[in-house]
Amino acid sequence: MSLIQEALRRQQAEAAKQAAAAAQQQSGTPPPPAPEKPSEKGPEKLSLKKVQPAQPQEQKNNVTETPPAVPPDTQQAETPKRKLVPGVVGVAALALLIVGCLAWLAFYLWKTMSPPPPPPATTTTTGVAPASTAPPPASTTTTIPPQTTTTTVPQTVSQPESKPEVVVVAPPPPPQPEPPATQAQPAVTIVPAPKVEPTRQPVVWPSLTLTGVMGRGNRGSAIINGEVVGVGEVVKGVKIAGIGDQGVHLEYQGEKRFLKIGGTTGD
């Protein structure tokens, strides 16, 4: 912002100087001399020179037109536009560079990934002269067939007399003896042997003594051989299948038994 303000101040000062110069030229008075800067060497000697009076100048011929002063608002609006132009040009150049790089990369990939062209087919030519297949010249002569007259004469063909055919009768074949009649054999019926079921040995239960029952059904428990067992438990290989009112249901090797309170399985 400071640079913009300084530029505006310089433009305003130049415009004021130009306006003052134009006004002095119109009035005919020369502009005041610019103040000289003091030299570093020291004060110079003053030289007296004759000052020539200002000659009147023709106002019509020497009047210089001053350009109109530009308002500061338009100048401020033009300065950011001027600053944006280099940035836009740089962005466009960068975009063109990126597009060119992408195009080159795509062409390189296409060239490397494309299959090689097939080898040219080799054809062998033999030095055989082509046979001339020119058609024969067409003949323009026309032939007229001669007219012939044919007469048909009936002919009689004599056929030889047919001889009588001789028939030879063959003697009948001798009668063949009949085969002896076969006697019918009696049907043999096979009776299947009866299945012998294996003798099942009696199951020997281990000795279990029931001393008490608590509960009923699947949630009850029993006291067997001094141990409290529930439904589903096994004692000496015997499974407790259920609890009844006065005993328990037992299962052992496929057999089931109901044991009452105070009884034993060894009885």
Task: Explain what this protein looks like in three dimensions.
The protein is of the alpha+beta class. Helix content is 27%, strand content 12%. The protein is flat.
In short:
By secondary structure, this protein is α+β, with helices and mostly antiparallel strands. It contains 3 helices and 7 strands, in the order αααβββββββ.
Primary descriptors:
alpha+beta, four-stranded antiparallel β-sheet, 7 strands, three-stranded antiparallel β-sheet, 267 residues
Strand content: 5-15%
The sequence of SSEs as H and E is: HHHEEEEEEE
Sheet/helix structural class: alpha+beta
Question: What is the radius of gyration?
Answer: 73 Å
Characterize the largest beta sheet: strand count, sense, and whether it forms a barrel. 4 strands, antiparallel
What's the count of strands?
Answer: 7
Uncertain ranges? 37-64, 125-132
How many helices? 3
Which of globular, elongated, flat, extended, rod-shaped describes the shape? flat
Q: How much helix, percentage-wise, in residues?
A: 25-40%
Strand numbers in spatial order across the main sheet: 4-5-6-7
Topology:
Elements: H1 2-27, H2 59-62, H3 72-113, E1 210-214, E2 221-224, E3 227-230, E4 234-235, E5 238-243, E6 247-252, E7 255-260
Antiparallel strand pairs: 1-2, 2-3, 4-5, 5-6, 6-7
